[in-house]
Amino acid sequence: MMTNFRNSVLSLITETSANLPSDVRRAIAAAIEREDPDSRAGLSMSAISLNIDMAVDRVAPVCQDTGMPTFFIHAPKGVDQLFMKREIEEAIAEASRTGKLRPNAVDAITGKNSGNNLGCHVPVIHFEPWEKEDIEVRLILKGGGCENKNIQYSLPMEVPGLGRAARDIDGVRKCILHSVWQAQGQGCSPGFIGVGVGGDRTSGYELAKKQLFRRVDDTNPDHDLQGLEESIMASANTFGIGPMGFGGKTTLLGCKIGKSHRVPASFFVSVAYNCWAYRRLGIIVDPADGSVKEWQFRDENEITRMAKGEGMPLTGKEVVLKAPLTEEEVRSLRVGDVVLVSGEMHTGRDAFHHYIMHHDLPEGVDTRGGVLYHCGPVILKNEDGSYAVNAAGPTTSIREEPYQADVIKKLGLRAIIGKGGMGPKTLAGLQEHGAVYLNAIGGAAQYYAACIKKVTGVDLLEEMGVPEAMWHFEVEGFPAIVTMDAHGNSLHSEIENDSKRALEAAG
Ligand SMILES: O=C(O)C[C@H](O)C(=O)O
Ligand code: SF4
Question: For the chain, is the Cβ count within 10 Å smaller at the N or the C terminus?
Answer without folding.
Answer: N
